[in-house]
Design a protein that fits this description.
Order of helices and strands: HHHHHHHHEEEHEHEHHH
Number of domains: 3
Strand order of the largest sheet: 3-2-1-4-5
Number of helices: 13
CATH topology of the largest domain: Nucleotidyltransferase, domain 5
Helix content: 40-55%
CATH superfamily of the largest domain: Ribonuclease H-like superfamily/Ribonuclease H
Largest sheet: 5 strands, mixed
CATH class of the largest domain: Alpha Beta
Strand content: 5-15%
């Protein structure tokens, strides 16, 4: 390694290398790499080049070879190096996946990255990579409820049919009550949000009464007819039906999607509906409130206005709810139903089959 062969550098490469050496913004490691190539092209020995750039003979040889292989571009960045972390064996990966899916730790209901790492003798970051690659999330759990309604399929087809193919000269309204909305006030004032700190509120609260929101969501334009009442008996439901009757065009039939709450089926309600033939009630299956699109609106108002609100009394709560409805109706956006009844029934059938296979 005392001598090094002279290498040929073309005019274009030489001009580019000299620009790199002269450049004020060129990283120093690129500068001395370019100098190695230029000095080698001038016929200097390896020892002379190493002395000139202050690097070892091995370094001189390495970057001369890099230039011969990749040209000037090969000098601009370091070569990728193999990871110092030994790759996991397929057997170890299979063990982690199997334990995650089929076993539980002795002192918990689910695995954490650290408990799994300790059990299999890996670092927690290795467990994280395995879980990420196999899309496993043992720290999360989803809730579900399979309806046992004997007429489940017929009711799904009826309600979804209204969403996807609404009848002519009619409005489809999703109707429900959000009951027992609490007027909660915090026991102490919170602190405002600032840089580096979230806003604060006390974990305890004072209950200042409750109200019930009756809402009817229009599937056409997303507008909501709503009112607050102290209770949610059949009397209040009849009052809300009269409000819907007043606030909708009289020449249209009204198809109301409702749940199986007892107040929707009392004799008084049935008599009123018989006297108002433009009203048609469509019942969702039991344990299938997700079919009623007004539940989506209830989730929005809870998240945006109620959950983090503070109310000294029920009047304040009702005022906040009605103000939210007013702002929503000023620029409504309809919720769009996309799943067909057939897709829903297939998914439910798969869920039942999966549940039966576990027992």
């Amino acid at each position: 390694m005392r001598k090094i062969e002279q290498i040929a550098v073309g005019a274009t490469d030489r001009e580019r290398l000299e620009r790199l050496v002269r450049g004020r913004n060129t990283p120093q490691k690129v500068v001395w790499r370019a100098r190695i190539v230029l000095l080698a092209s001038d016929g200097l020995t390896a020892e002379a080049i190493a002395a000139a750039v202050g690097k070892s003979l091995l370094t001189v040889r390495r970057w001369r070879q890099r230039y011969l292989a990749k040209g000037v571009d090969g000098l601009l960045k370091d070569a990728t190096r193999p990871s110092r972390v030994k790759p996991l064996s397929p057997e170890k990966i299979k063990q982690v996946v199997h334990m995650t899916l089929h076993e539980k730790p002795p002192n918990a209901t689910h695995w954490s990255v650290r408990s799994m790492a300790k059990a299999v003798g890996l670092s927690y970051s290795s467990v994280q990579r395995i879980w990420h690659a196999h899309e496993l999330k043992p720290h999360l759990v989803d809730t579900f409820k399979v309806s046992r309604d004997r007429n489940f399929a017929a009711k799904v087809e009826d309600v979804v049919g209204l969403y996807l193919n609404p009848p002519d000269k009619a409005l489809v309204l999703c109707v429900d009550e959000k009951s027992q909305i609490q007027a909660l006030d915090r026991t102490q004032p919170g602190l405002p949000m600032k840089k580096g700190r979230a806003g604060t509120m006390t974990h305890d609260y004072k209950r200042n009464g409750t109200t019930t929101l009756f809402a009817a969501l229009s599937m056409v334009d997303g507008k909501v007819i709503g009112t607050c009442m102290p209770r949610h008996r059949h009397r209040e439901f009849l009052r809300f039906l009269r409000l819907i009757d007043q606030q909708t065009p009289p020449g249209l039939d009204l198809h109301l999607v409702v749940d199986n709450y007892a107040t929707h089926k009392t004799p008084a309600v049935k008599r009123w509906l018989k006297a108002h033939p433009r009203f048609h009630l469509h019942f969702t299956p039991t344990s299938a409130s997700w079919l009623n699109m007004v539940e989506r609106f209830f989730a929005e108002i809870t998240r945006n206005r109620i959950r983090r609100g503070t109310f000294e009394n029920v009047a304040e709560l009702k005022s906040a709810i009605m103000e939210y409805l007013e702002n929503h109706n000023a620029d409504p956006k309809p919720f769009i139903w996309t799943k067909s009844a057939g897709e829903i029934l297939e998914k439910v059938a798969r869920a039942k089959q999966a549940l039966e296979s576990q027992h």
